[in-house]
Specification:
With 429 residues, this protein is mainly alpha-helical. The protein is built from 19 helices and no strands.
């Protein structure tokens, strides 16, 4: 692989393109946020769905598709570049507002969320990889923190705006006019303003390193179970998405059942997601103190916030605990993602991130089933208890097994490569 060694990395050096990718990840967050407060209530009040497990099916379809496409988005990003994958992701989202507006039954919503899963996998995967490409190793945590901050701030704003629109008009079609405008804008920006960044990753690595150019199958094994630290990160990412799923399915239905209006529900969900904006600080913090401490703290804080929401009543206590769980997520979310970024060789970093994101986002599907069954069989509160306990157990695995991966003062050492992963082997599909 040829390298352009004169390519300079750094957020300041590439502020224009970096800022455009920040805008795009904000629009990615707006896209998924536009469903958060409205769609579960739409299923119950407009489409007549009574089963919590059936309502959760739209998150199951989303999670399965997004997790699989995350895996291949990373692979395709290495092979074809970041921009083509990004454009394809936004093209996929163009029909989504029409599906949500005209869906005659809940099955159409579930199928429509397949489009959302493809969109989120391709666009968010490429947004984060492009930022890492441009920022370089010294600002990797900050770049991931900025990415996740603006993405989840977009999610919060999308949930709040569509909740307000729905409260003042109808559950549909008006909230999804806003979604249509977001998707079209992002599609146009991706086509006409974004430039390719994969060359910066290619220039960063040493092809003679023993860890360079791992086959795709070897990357999947390494990032899943071949490295104990990466396993700890993958399982934590999987379980922490139960919290995100809880706020997508259970929180809106639970709070409305407690008498809270749809606009207030959108605000509680939005407050939780708005705390993700602090990932700018938590990602930068991890560049100074390491990845492991904020991840461990975040797992327990997020779990504690979720547990507390089932034990209190009233808008202000719910909002405060939603904010606490959001802060916990802000501590763990970007820094879990930085762990495989630290541990991967630049020649397969995008693929390694894809494996982590596959396991993380399969948590949407598994979480939707677990949470839906808890609500269906026991009670809405049970979903909060189950999610909190799983967060505590997963945090304990991180505490025991995860080594520090920060390149300056990390303790993590990659395992010796297996014979099939020797440099020069043609990657397997």
């Amino acid at each position: 692989m040829s390298k352009a060694t004169d390519l300079k990395q750094g957020i300041r050096e590439h502020l224009g393109q970096f800022s455009l990718h920040v805008l795009l990840v904000f629009l990615t967050g707006l896209t998924i946020g536009s469903e958060r407060a409205v769609v579960p209530v739409l299923g119950e009040d407009v489409l007549g769905v009574e089963s919590f497990l059936v309502i959760g099916s739209f998150v199951v379809s989303f999670g399965i598709v997004k997790s699989i496409l995350n895996l291949y988005a990373g692979k395709w990003g290495e092979e074809y570049g970041r921009k083509p994958v990004l454009v394809a992701g936004w093209a996929t989202a163009l029909p989504l507002p029409l599906v949500l507006i005209f869906a005659p039954s809940w099955g159409w919503i579930t199928v429509g969320n397949v489009l959302l899963g493809v969109n989120q996998a391709l666009t968010w995967s490429m947004a984060i990889n492009a930022k890492i490409d441009l920022a370089g190793p010294d600002q990797r945590g900050l770049a991931v923190g900025i990415d996740e901050s603006f993405g989840y701030t977009g999610l919060a704003v999308g949930a709040w705006i569509t909740g307000v629109i729905a409260a003042r008009t109808n559950l549909r079609p008006e909230p999804f006019y806003f979604l249509a405008a977001v998707v079209v804008l992002a599609f146009l920006v991706s086509i006409f303003l974004i430039r390719e960044t994969v060359q910066y990753a290619q220039a960063e690595g040493d092809d003679d390193d023993r860890d360079a150019n791992l086959p795709f199958r070897a990357v999947v094994k390494r990032a899943t179970y071949g490295d104990r630290t990466l396993f700890a990160a993958a399982q934590a990412g999987h379980v922490e998405n139960f919290v995100d799923t809880l706020f997508w399915i259970a929180v809106p239905l639970y709070l409305t059942s407690q008498g809270l209006g749809i606009d207030a529900v959108g605000l509680v969900v939005g407050v939780h997601s708005a705390m993700y904006f602090s990932q700018i600080g938590t990602g930068g913090l991890a560049d100074r103190i390491g990845r492991r401490p904020p991840v461990v703290a975040g797992m327990f804080l997020a779990g504690g916030g979720v547990l507390g929401m089932a034990l209190v009543e009233g808008f202000l206590p719910w909002a405060a605990l939603a904010a606490a769980s959001g802060l916990g997520m802000a501590l763990l979310y970007p820094n879990l993602m930085t762990v495989p970024s630290d541990a991967a060789h630049p020649t397969w970093r995008s693929a390694g991130m894809g494996v982590y994101r596959m396991w993380r986002d399969s948590g949407y599907a598994v979480g939707a089933i677990v949470i839906g069954l808890s609500m269906e069989v026991v009670s809405a509160e049970a979903a909060f208890y189950v999610t909190a306990v799983l967060m505590f157990l997963s945090g304990a695995v991180v505490f025991v097994w995860m080594e520090e991966t920060h390149p300056e003062f990390g303790t993590h050492e990659p395992p010796a490569p297996a014979p099939e992963s020797a440099p020069g082997v043609v990657p397997e599909d």
